[in-house]
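Blackboard transcription, Thursday session:
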Amino acid sequence: MDGEEREKLRLGFVGGGPGSLIGPIHVMASTMDQHFEIVAGTFSRDYEKTKEHAESLEIDLDRAYRDYKEMAEREAQRDDGIDMVAILSPNDNHVVASKAFLEEGIHVLCEKPLATNAQEAFYLSQFAKDKELMLATCYNYSGFPMIRQARAMVEKGNLGKIRMVNIEMPQSYLASNSPQSTGDSWRQDPERVGPSLILMDLATHLHHLMLYVSGLEVDEVLGETSTLVDGGLVDDNVSVLIRFKEGARGLLWTSASATGNEHGMRIRVFGDKASLDWFEEEPNHLIFKPLGKPHMTYAKGGPSLYEEGKRGTRMTWGHPEGYIEAFANIYSDIALFLEEEKKVSGFPDGEVGAESILFSEKVLESSSKGTWIKVENP
Amino acid sequence: MDGEEREKLRLGFVGGGPGSLIGPIHVMASTMDQHFEIVAGTFSRDYEKTKEHAESLEIDLDRAYRDYKEMAEREAQRDDGIDMVAILSPNDNHVVASKAFLEEGIHVLCEKPLATNAQEAFYLSQFAKDKELMLATCYNYSGFPMIRQARAMVEKGNLGKIRMVNIEMPQSYLASNSPQSTGDSWRQDPERVGPSLILMDLATHLHHLMLYVSGLEVDEVLGETSTLVDGGLVDDNVSVLIRFKEGARGLLWTSASATGNEHGMRIRVFGDKASLDWFEEEPNHLIFKPLGKPHMTYAKGGPSLYEEGKRGTRMTWGHPEGYIEAFANIYSDIALFLEEEKKVSGFPDGEVGAESILFSEKVLESSSKGTWIKVENP
Amino acid sequence: MDGEEREKLRLGFVGGGPGSLIGPIHVMASTMDQHFEIVAGTFSRDYEKTKEHAESLEIDLDRAYRDYKEMAEREAQRDDGIDMVAILSPNDNHVVASKAFLEEGIHVLCEKPLATNAQEAFYLSQFAKDKELMLATCYNYSGFPMIRQARAMVEKGNLGKIRMVNIEMPQSYLASNSPQSTGDSWRQDPERVGPSLILMDLATHLHHLMLYVSGLEVDEVLGETSTLVDGGLVDDNVSVLIRFKEGARGLLWTSASATGNEHGMRIRVFGDKASLDWFEEEPNHLIFKPLGKPHMTYAKGGPSLYEEGKRGTRMTWGHPEGYIEAFANIYSDIALFLEEEKKVSGFPDGEVGAESILFSEKVLESSSKGTWIKVENP
Amino acid sequence: MDGEEREKLRLGFVGGGPGSLIGPIHVMASTMDQHFEIVAGTFSRDYEKTKEHAESLEIDLDRAYRDYKEMAEREAQRDDGIDMVAILSPNDNHVVASKAFLEEGIHVLCEKPLATNAQEAFYLSQFAKDKELMLATCYNYSGFPMIRQARAMVEKGNLGKIRMVNIEMPQSYLASNSPQSTGDSWRQDPERVGPSLILMDLATHLHHLMLYVSGLEVDEVLGETSTLVDGGLVDDNVSVLIRFKEGARGLLWTSASATGNEHGMRIRVFGDKASLDWFEEEPNHLIFKPLGKPHMTYAKGGPSLYEEGKRGTRMTWGHPEGYIEAFANIYSDIALFLEEEKKVSGFPDGEVGAESILFSEKVLESSSKGTWIKVENP
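(Written on the board underneath:)
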């Protein structure tokens, strides 16, 4: 973010072409801080579309590829080959595409969920570790400065011992029982969605953010997934009771059928000294509620922040920043990590990506059995 | 609220004497609209305290009783005996006291919980029905005008078919592991609390409000109570998944260990046409979120309310209920001043009143001359 | 507010009868804390209406008077005559009525504005001083606990030297160019309004609150009154620049033509150490903004308040003042039910009370078994 | 924002080098939507710093210039010379630098204020018109989607006839009487600030936004500038009463000494049918308050927006966007204008930039004379 001299990291994309919701966000986020330049990609199954999209991004046409295999092989052969690939293709493509690049020695940032089941996700995470390559999962909400401030406040003991975490994200994208205009029609296709839409699409984000901020580990889950939309083809609501290993309790709720709601992501962490409250729709503020004292509002770019909460701020106090900037923070942290200028940790790696999927699988199991299920990494 | 001619209803109290949190609220609430006059009571186990309290309420001392039994019997014998009793004594006294008055043909308003177990509560309810007497439980949150508007909107179909209800009340009254200063030390005594504090003390309120607003019926529950305060003697947190008979799902959470939180009661109801959101800490507004349209904010005393939402409003739009208490503070300060019990200053005197008028005159002069005008008291 | 033994003060009313907006508020406010009893009054120019209203307030009919003169004289002759009168009659009656009671040695609380011009108001104020009687002006907004906390914070130097005060109240009561339904049609009659509606009706409140909180004195004003409603007969908007004697600056704005606004009263005070922000529509919170530190939110009944901010609070932290009115609604609904004037349903009966306990028992059973439990009434 | 094939516009910078607050924002904003590529610049008076900064932005070193004159001349000679320059250098450099590029046929986006006095600003605006070149002033707040929705709602008559505009921006950047850490120490140097800091630095933004949203024209002003910080060297507070040509009234307040405040920009527009309320610290929502109906909340990316309010949104409903995205919208609108793909109007041109300075000069004159001053374009 400062602007010292350096060569940019070379970035390629798999997916994210015309019609993609998240593609343009990755373009903006990866280039916002001048860390990455986009030099290669395969954006669509339709090669003509890939070429057109490459042109629009000013990518040389000989680096617009027919598929991820060709891209991985040929980029690996170039002296100026990509340093990292961002995998934005459909979920069932994540593991094979990621693996193809890792095999060629290329770092990978993969959209969530990392895989369609936990077993494959853990396998992929281990595969990257064995190759000593970076595998990151794009849990972008952890890029908000006030989320990082929240995590730092928990780590430094400002909240004391954590008792309870409440995280929720009631959304409305399936609230009307009609095809959505988001271009994401796969979300209503049970074949492509797999065993649970609501868990893989939304709950994985909450699982990650809950652990990222609280530092806790999940021990047992008891949850229920439901289809609340009349005639709905996929599940659209899930509530989960959580027992953490540290003894704290958790409550996680997310819905895609919460009529009229915008985004709705909110996390509250309660310790024995203080609690925290953060709402994604107003992300530049973090409420801190100490025992027996008035509530305090920490502001992005404002006074009394830890270094962790100061980082990732591009404009001074009172100037709101948002989703794209938070997304860009993930990219910039990865860049700092890859450039080894300084060790930055905290961006979500492959193991974290795998654990969220395991969590989802265990909630699904609990939902069908109606009882508590233990959550243990393989 | 109108003020037409009528004789007031005669009201008596059991409990609610010196040191009671809820006693003074019942006094204010019952007399605010000139419907009731308080004419009898037994306020404490200590008869001297009962008599003192009776005097402070201007109750004739021959209607200050030693216990509820004496009170029920003797009030029943009077021509001008009480029409209704309010039972504010400890929970384990609710059934016997209520029954004593019902047996004498006196209507009963009993604080929640109605009994310490459901069996006795249903018995008491049936007993009142058999006697054709009113037995009310004091679930006071259903008295907020915007809660009544919410209920009416659900009833009239504005939300469509209900899919989901989320209700919560994270409080902090047990958050510090120390005796509380509320005078309610019984809340940390497992003997007096019974099998669950959090359920009987807080969750009963949520259960009632959830059904009151949504009109749903509970079919199945899956919950967990926990003691999250280190060394806590009673449970202080509960999360409950709910299946309603109509197919909707519910999520209920309440805590007494949610450090730093104020009151926290919030109810959200999601239908297939719209959803509702109400927060008790800002009770004068109700958010309505119709599918595919901007959110709307209904305000107490404001436009477009149903009759149900208009009732129970004592001051016009924009004046928070809270206005009346502020108004009462002026009166009470004047009373303290006049009684010379202690010198209270700060209420606006005549000079202050004159200065505001002088200010107005000078502004008017400035407005006509288009320049600065000096303001000086005569 | 405590309830120690004492004799109540005797209160009479001039004005505030049927149709009055503020009359019922004065009744509720004066009796809420058991300091006053209402024993006399002249409520209307129509003596029949006065008598009816007196009956509704349980005032003896021989203390329902034809006019303020008769009332002042005859109350002064009684041994149990009123200690104080509240003058709620039209503005042009304030001085003569107040003076009549002061002459008889009776304290006066007069609605604002104290007079229709400053000269008479100062005269009246001096008249009361000479008689050593209390003359109070009913600037009720200074009764909010958080306003008193604000004043105390300024007094104790928490804000440092005051630089700037911004106070505003954009309302909408004249926003539509049509006769209002508030019963206050005099507000559109230039004859009765005098030289300025907006200044006398709204700006006087702001002037008082501004000085009450900031402790400053006005030196010079520069303002403009305007009629912004097409065809409006009275002024409906005023903006004022203020120079305080202490060197600070002020900005005051109020409007009756601010379409769509509720009440809008907000005061912000800026010192060299910190600033304050209070909004009447959410009166239970006060924002404190210290230089170089996070904002803090002081809450009615909450932690870290000065004694001044604690006084005048009737219910604990998190219960909005508004809670009492909701509580009163339960009582009033019960009264209407018992009086059979009209059938009111919806207040919680005994069965509802029993069901909440059953719910609690089933949750407890679920919690111990870790699985779903059916809920069925006996 | 869509991604169709095109060649990017070539952009150069004057100023905005190391230590600049606004430089990195211009880099992010100009490249976010892939409309511009940064290919030339002179970033600092120190040529070494300019070269280093050019490298960090991957600009060829032969296009890193010693000063704006060299840059204008040499870029004009190249076939691939810049299409537009962004002038980010100190205020007293704006006119000469802008003119140098305009003379060479290069479009100019100049930071506000366009000049240090209105006469030069109008001259520059006319100069660009004569050359048939684009001269834009960087009033970036007009880039927020909800501000554009607000403007559209006024234009389409949703508010009816406008009665009143209230705009304010109480900031705290000079609140402590000590050198600031923003790197903008020139803001406390009266020599470099000119006749008024508060008017040129902050009030010009408000003047522009007020007219942009309301569509009104200023007729007369009456204002006061003040130095409220003890020992302050520049003015830090201004309040202005405004009479619009259409008969409406305005109130403008901005401060740099409003201790504890963040950014504080808020605009409220009141018409005879409805009013609007927007707050820059929560820029993704716009409150609409129709006469006699509940308030409605329009959300960025949400339902029921006009085309104007939909444009400039990069992520769906509920995902917050902020200051940088709003800034990028100004750049993207300029790009669309220059590319003549479609006519986009509404970004602030040179005349608009000149008018804000004229407004400031007239307020200053009013402040010294203490009376109303007419505002007329030359």
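Lecturer's comment: The first helix of chain D runs from residue 23 to 31.
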